[in-house]
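The freezer alarm interrupted the setup, so I double-checked each line after restarting. Inputs confirmed:
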Amino acid sequence: MDMLAGKVKKTSLNVDSTMNPIDVLERPIRLTARDVTVHYGAKQALHGISIDIPDRAVTAFIGPSGCGKSTFLRCINRMNDTIEGAKVGGTIKLDGEDIYAPALDVVELRARIGMVFQKPNPFPKSIYDNVAYGPRIHGLARNKADLDEIVVSSLRKAGLFEEVKDRLQEPGTGLSGGQQQRLCIARAIAVGPEVILMDEPCSALDPIATAVIEELIDELRENYTIVIVTHSMQQAARVSQRTAFFHLGNLIEQGPTEDIFTNPVNKQTQDYIMGRIG
Amino acid sequence: MAIDIQTSPEKASSDRTALIRAGLRRRHLNEQIFRGLGIAAIVIALGFVALLFVDVFRKGIPAFVQSNLHLSVTFDEAVIGSDPVPVRGDFVSDAEYTAANLKWQRDLAMLNWNKIVEASLRKAAPEGFEIDSKQIQTIPETNARHQIREMFVANPSLLGQTVDVDVLASANAANWIKGNIDRSLGDGQQQLSPPARQLIDTFVDNGTISNGFAWTIFTNVDSRAAPASAGLLGAFVGTLWMMLIVVLLAVPIGVAAAIYLEEFAPKSRITDLIEVNINNLAAVPSIVFGLLGAAVFINWFHLPISAPIVGGLVLTLMTLPTIIIATRGALMGVSPSLRQAALGMGASKTQMVFHHVLPTTFPSILTATILGVAHALGETAPLLLIGMKAFVASVPATPFDQAAALPVQIYLWQGNENRNFFEPRTAAAIMVLLAVMILLNGVAIYLRSRLEKRA
Amino acid sequence: MNALVVAGVLIVLLGISYQTGWSKSRNLVTADGVKVHSRPQYHGSFTAIWAMIPALVILLLWAWLGGGITHNYTVSQIPQDILVSLDQAGLNGAIIRINALASGYGVAGEIAPWEQAAGDAVRSFNFLAFAGTLILAIVAGGAGLIYARSRITARLRARNTVERVVNVLLLACSAVAILTTVGIVASLVTEAYKFFTFINPLDFFFGTVWAPNNAGGDNHGSYGLLPLLSGTLMITAIAMIVAVPVGLLSAIYLSQYAPKSFRSVAKPLIEILAGIPTIVFGFFALVTVGPFLRDFGNAIGLQISATSALTAGIVMGIMIIPFVSSLSDDILNQVPRTLRDGAYGLGATQSETIRNVLLPAALPGIVGAFLLAVSRAIGETMIVVLAAGNAPILRGSPFEPVSTITVSIVNQLTGDTDFTGPQSLVGFALGLTLFVVTLCLNIFALYIVRRFREQYE
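Predicted 3D structure, all chains:
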């Protein structure tokens, strides 16, 4: 695996050559996207996005609302398939495998690339059933004991177990917003994904709950490749190792988070960081 | 063993993938089955629509063809006699003239016009064809004699002359001609005697009987004595009166009520009650409105039984909740900015509602009205309870006259004993009813799209 | 004729009064140049209201009391010696003859001189009364007009008055809905109460034999509700068995799977079923579905009657399909997209998402829709009148003819309308039962649906 180290720099496209060549993360590349475009009907939402996502690190997508960062995120686990009239072009590869290949099973793909959404969306089931749902449909547990173990360990990893261990059979919708979001993270972890996509996971939460989730993201980084969309630059700066800046459907700039925030190359990035672009 | 995500992620990951892959085929199969069930449900639902329409059309279209007998009728003096027609000049007063004229007509009505009909039938029959008088009279419809008498009353100079007249074939004859009755049935089960059937076939061959479009369905009123001439005109006009009443009452009252509840009513217990009440009223079975009509309008207010006025009132009450709910929905949809703009210009609340808010809801109100009327048009049960089951063979001149209604006519016709003849005719009446409804719905859709485009 | 004259007079009065108020208002503007509170239209309407209300009050008073006055006058015109010789029926007959003479239609048979005299007197009385009322109305309207005109000044808050009147009118219109409910409840309860003076309520609600003696007489027959109730419930159950799976699955397919173009065609087509009058379904059941089921039964060795609970139930189910499907469609669309996304994001297939997440989330709403459909099936009349077979016997087989509550209402109430015997009054007792059952179902269903909506708002 170390062989792949350093590839980040070589395959980084759209990055100005004056960018700091030393990436803080010398990690293998998990996901590569090349010239990804998205059309909603006649409207083009993304214009040729190319980016590499390193393994076991947090990559943040930032940019003003409507810039296409969420759209691109949803391409990675093919959630755009569920939107009528959406057309995706270009290639996205997970471990070298084209995820838009006709032979690829989207169900399997989504089991490997989990997702956490903007608004906490626990199912109208018990806390236990929420977490157990993924393993159940995918047949990951051979028996009840297996399932219990997966549920408990997932809740632990999401930092929720201690808070809910006495009320696993109560409805997940009864939890507080922050707890609900951690439940959703536990639900995603329970399937054992390799990549977790987070679409503005804290935008509906208060600052304290946000801090808890951010801490959690930092812990999860140990085991998972995480891509997070956020409209908060502070959040990107706090949790991510790499940052990509989107604007009007284009990927303007990407690089180590520190560089993007302290030394942006592109004028538009600079304007955004300085608060000049909404 | 549970998958250990802690220790060796790579191993765990590939284990998981294997497990997931193992289940994929079954899951995709389930997906296909589920989707197939959905398609099957759609096919069943659409199939029922198609089946119903095809069935009604297949049954109803033959009824739009009627069998006409082309006879050459001689107004035989031997039958009619030669009483002179009263002339005004012979009498001193109008009253005496009217009395004499009525007596003359009454005398004519007493004559056996069937003899003239029979003679003309025998003339058309092959030479020496043997059939008795009673049997041959089963071929033309029973109103043929009235038709010929009325010709004579209108034009007494026909006496002794021979003219060509088209009369309707009887319902039984029409059944035989169109094959509505099984020709292979024995004599005992046939409605017509063997010679009559033979003669009908001869008539068809020699052109005395021919088929034409059944305008009578649209131009005649219902008839029991002469079923082949039974038409929908009376029922149609009855329905028209009722719909007129519904539109004139339900629309203004419904729109006004909606405006009050949505725009003016203070939010209180009472308005809540009215709201719950209206929602429930919309779901009250229609027959209950019929009971209301029977008890209140007929038994308490002594309005005439079987009249369009009562039917119209009952259907109005039934349609009212629909119109109120639709109008409220439309009012609710008007953007608050429009309201604020109007109020900001110094308009009073009433002015704001009537000058600015209401006009924008016009398309929705119009559509709701048409759809409500279309629904009321097909309603049968409440009308049966206010006496509209009665046989009425006239066109109602006012809403207070006895009348039938289209759906009730369908109900009455389907119950007629001459199944072979009335089943197609019922289906034809249904086609007319459906055509009116489709027309109304089409107009609603068209108007809405036009008005919304303009707005 | 009279109605036309009255309408004409009213319209003229309306026009004149509006015009008067309007022009006075215009003159106000030019005369003093002071700021006028209300616009001329409001002054016109103000005057019109003042003119129309007295005129209408007088006309309505006459419409209400006039009949009685005319009646008394007519009776007073019958000579005393003849009057005493008449019984009630004879008196009514005499009045009808006199009115016929008065209206100029003429009567059958010989006309007695006193009849002719009374007829002439009533005719002139009618004319005078009509003319008098009309003139009185015009005078009252005119007085109102003049009073209103005199009140028109620049300061008059005519708009506020007009708006208050409009407000009252609007309130009156929304009261119609309440009055309808009151009318329904009052008529059902009073007539049903009369029925229960003949028949013990216990015998009605728990009786197992339905055999009204429609011939009349002292023996009223038996009025047991249970055979009708069982027939109603059996047909409703069959209808639900047909409608719920088909309606729900087609709603699922249309809202979740179908491409937009297919949905935009198929949805209205299915909704056509909802617009077809029930009498048409009844005919379809009677002449097509019933015979088909009978033949089908014969083919597989099953005795199925052409008109049976099965026939009526299946066709009623077809009728309810669009009802279930469009309600379920609405409900499914209300489940937030994020829930579906959540399941997809975990790798659930579409059907897994629908079955495990969407349907459980939508369940309360769907149950509400289901109850509304049940209520509709219970109250449906024409299909069962034509296709259920009208056999009010308590039995368990759906292949045999049954009868329902609605069928019996139609049977008992279409003959006559003198609601004196239990034979016709039972219709109201049945109607009351039907009303209460459907009302409870509706209230409960609407409550559930509303709760469901609030949950996702």
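Quick read of the result. Chain B is about 65% helix and 5% strand.
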